[in-house]
């Protein structure tokens, strides 16, 4: 893919319209809408497909993976209730777009991807755009124990169950957001860790993610 980093009026206008669409769909967190209005999503697309970058759709990024639909990114981010300085683990870096949105909100992001080509691309593209999360290559279904505990954990691929390891790596008061279901569709699940072995779980709307593949997943 040939990337080009130019943000002109056409893309800026399209980004503004995307924010309006998300607002209409119920995203009401102003900081998240501001972040979506700021991060140039077309930078994650080959120039040939820039006309797709601000549609509210998921889009292929290679390796049979996708950049998530903006609504889904905003929805999952809202559930995390990010506060400035939160230590956030993202499982499934993919394009790196979600990580940029989290960093715009002031999160300290640890992001892991299992596909080497995608990992290699993000370690170049994100710092070039000015975003510097901590990047990891490997199976995130086990979390990243060495850097635990985390204030928040977001999984951006569909899991068969909530991996225990991820719950263990949450701080007390921490939140995990993870799509759980079969390979076809998943329910968004949030888990609040209320005490060392106590959790409050909520099952929310239905989504369709690529599968979380790994030791504690598919
Ligand atoms: N957050 C991404 C973005 O903003 O573009 C979208 C991610 S895409 C829907 C899901 C990603 O999860 C894919 O890149 C896939 O390779 C990755 N993935 C799947 N299983 C994984 C695992 N066990 N560990 C790390 N990454 C995984």
Automatic annotation (TrEMBL):
GO biological process: methylation; protein repair
Any one Gene Ontology molecular-function term assigned to this protein's record: protein-L-isoaspartate (D-aspartate) O-methyltransferase activity
UniProt keyword annotations, A-Z: Cytoplasm, Methyltransferase, S-adenosyl-L-methionine, Transferase
Catalytic activity annotation: [protein]-L-isoaspartate + S-adenosyl-L-methionine = [protein]-L-isoaspartate alpha-methyl ester + S-adenosyl-L-homocysteine
Leading EC class: transferase
Pfam family, one: PCMT
UniProt keyword Ubl conjugation present: no
Signal peptide: none
Protein location: Cytoplasm
Active site: 68
CDD domains (UniProt xref): AdoMet_MTases
A GO cellular component annotation in the UniProt record: cytoplasm
EC number of this enzyme: 2.1.1.77
PANTHER family, per the entry: PROTEIN-L-ISOASPARTATE O-METHYLTRANSFERASE, PROTEIN-L-ISOASPARTATE(D-ASPARTATE) O-METHYLTRANSFERASE
Family the entry assigns: Belongs to the methyltransferase superfamily. L-isoaspartyl/D-aspartyl protein methyltransferase family.
NCBIfam families, sorted: pimt (TIGR00080), PRK00312.1 (NF001453)
Function of the protein: Catalyzes the methyl esterification of L-isoaspartyl residues in peptides and proteins that result from spontaneous decomposition of normal L-aspartyl and L-asparaginyl residues. It plays a role in the repair and/or degradation of damaged proteins.
Name of the protein this chain belongs to: Protein-L-isoaspartate O-methyltransferase
Organism: Mucilaginibacter ginsenosidivorans
